[in-house]
Amino acid sequence: MNNLVAFCALLVAAVSAYNFEDPDFNILLSDDLEELSSGVASFSHPRSRRDDEAVNDKDKCHHRKRWGELCCAEDVMAKMRDVEKDLKRECFKEVVGKDKHEKFDPFNCETMDQRKKQIVCVIQCVGQKKDLLDTEGNPKEEEFRSFLKESFSSESWLAALQDKVISTCLDEGKNATANRDASDSTSCNPAGIKIAHCLHREIQLNCPADQIKDEKSCARLQERLKRRDFFHPPPPPGAFDEPDN
């Protein structure tokens, strides 16, 4: 099983220039894709999902294990997702060619690769419809800055960080475009998803103490984000001990 996952990860990294190695961000992507592919327009706020989970706490099998909640900015991030939901649904149909997916084998590398390509393309499509990405999927810097500054303006602490966060994430988007495999005409530009992931990471890493809802959960999330080594757990105790003579 580990070999299959490793092989699929390498395959996707090769074709999309985005490695999908951040499980916390993958949860957000998976939620979007599940809602789009099922044809259900839920896009619920994280707090609403937590309330639902509390009500159904006795029925654990109906809820996926989450990697932890966001440290902060739930309202801002949820609002950005809600604003985009109709565009995402429209783009999903354009990319996939239909309103929803058929059932698929989650252990099939080819299917996994296809799904990941599709989410990259959906995000590119949304960015283009919002005039944040050009026809090739490259970031339009001035438009992106204006959009993000407006999105962040409702939170004074976030507005104070905006120049640093925006510059960092635009640079990552540009680098993703520069490292793109131009020989693969079927792949979309990863700049959009790289910027989206960067915004998720940088905002969570820079949450001020008075905005953090759950300190322990946030500390674990921030440690994963700082390591950028999401799928490599720490070695077991004694792994590096010198052998007895």
From TrEMBL:
UniProt keyword annotations, A-Z: Secreted, Signal
Signal peptide location: 1-17
Molecular function GO labels: odorant binding
Positions of region (Disordered): 226-245
Pfam families cross-referenced by the UniProt entry: PBP_GOBP (PF01395)
Main location: secreted
Residues that span the membrane, as ranges: none
Localization of this protein: Secreted
Keyword Transport: no
InterPro entries, A to Z: Odorant-binding_protein, PBP/GOBP, PBP_GOBP_sf
Domain of life: Eukaryota
GO cellular component: extracellular region
Family stated for the protein in its record: Belongs to the PBP/GOBP family.
PANTHER family hit by this protein: AGAP011368-PA (PTHR21066:SF17), ODORANT-BINDING PROTEIN 59A-RELATED (PTHR21066)
Name of the molecule in the record: Odorant binding protein 15
